[in-house]
Design goal:
Layout lengths: L40 H8 L6 H8 L24 H26 E6 L13 E5 L13 E4 L13 E7 L4 E4 L5 E3 L2 E2 L24 E3 L4 E5 L9 H4 L2 E2 L3 E10 L5 E2 L26 H6 L8 E3 L4
Antiparallel strand pairs: 1-2, 1-13, 2-11, 3-4, 3-11, 4-9, 5-6, 5-8, 6-7, 9-10, 11-12
Length: about 325
């Protein structure tokens, strides 16, 4: 019978169980109903009568499409893979990456910069044994070496070692210069004494004297040549022993000390004030280095100042 709110009320003999009521009238009664959360949006849409089945629902029911675009999938729905690369393709990419890395490394080491380890003490205290420097090979191709540059070079043939280890020294004389070691044990360039604060100092604070290592005390630097000395003069075998070196023998300019980390610093080129320019020179046959047979035996304590290239492996 109708109630106040327009709905039908249950008769005295009826029960509240919806299962005992007619299915076509179950929706108008206010009996106890069990609410079940829909399993999916598609199920809710069908239960509430919200129109036809959407495209998404139909796609889920059909399953994933086949690779050739025809028919329904036989299995349950699974997300498609974004990309499926064959193992051979991945291996090819790895090989290409390794080859490109190797090419870049070789180009940088042969034409741009290369690390070297200082092995001996002829450059103390500027460079100590077992320190590592980075040698610039690129800019010397476009710029001349300057007085005070620290360079790595291949020694003359009579001073070559079995392992072809290069030397490391400081440039003192440039093409056209005249370098002298006078009786006061100082170095003069073009008649002017040069100030060398980087020379190794003894414990009492007195800098090393620059002693000649042969009877020769004056050198004329020709075109495409350099005169080099070590900073630890009493322990260095340099142009005083083997004479001037050729530009073509120079590997590069040391510009950075990077190891050990506490010694990390840029190797500055000193400024030599009031050194007059040398004589103009023209390119010609390189002069032969001074015979060093007597020099090596005259000062057994001197060392060539080796700079070993850091292994690339």
């Amino acid at each position: 019978m109708p109630g106040r709110n327009g709905a039908c009320e249950a008769a005295p003999g009826d029960t509240d169980d919806l299962a005992t009521r007619p299915p076509d009238r179950a929706g108008v009664y206010r009996g106890r109903r069990t609410r079940v959360k829909p399993a999916s949006a598609c199920a809710t849409r069908r239960r509430t009568g919200g129109g036809g089945v959407s495209r998404r629902c139909r796609r889920l029911r059909k399953g994933p499409p086949r690779g050739d675009g025809g028919g329904r999938g036989a299995g349950p729905y699974t997300p498609l893979l974004v990309d499926r690369r064959p193992a051979l393709g991945c291996l090819k990419e790895i090989v290409e990456t390794l080859v490109l890395t190797l090419v870049i490394f070789l180009v940088i080491q042969n034409f741009v910069a290369q690390p070297y380890e200082v092995r001996q003490n002829s450059m103390e205290t500027t460079l100590e044994p077992h320190q590592y420097v980075l040698v610039d090979k690129l800019t010397p191709r476009f710029d001349e070496y300057k007085r005070g540059d620290i360079i790595v070079f291949n020694p003359p043939a009579s001073w070559e070692r079995e392992d072809n280890t290069p030397f490391i020294k400081r440039v003192i004389g440039l093409p056209g210069d005249t370098v002298e070691i006078r009786p006061d044990r100082f170095v003069y360039v073009n008649g002017r004494k040069i100030d060398e604060p980087y020379i190794y100092a003894q414990p009492v604070g007195q800098p090393d004297d620059t002693e000649p290592q042969t009877d020769q005390t004056t050198w004329h630097v020709g075109a495409d040549e350099l005169f080099v000395l070590g900073d630890h003069r009493s322990r260095s075998a340099d142009s005083r022993s083997f004479g001037v070196i050729r530009h073509t023998d120079v590997i590069g300019r040391a510009f950075l000390r990077y190891w050990p980390l506490p010694t990390f610093s840029v190797l500055q080129t000193p400024v030599y004030a009031a050194v007059p320019p040398g004589a103009s020179v023209t390119a010609g046959p390189a002069a032969s280095p001074t015979d060093s047979s007597s020099a090596s035996s005259g000062d057994p304590a001197s060392d060539p100042g080796l700079a070993s290239p850091v292994p690339s492996g």
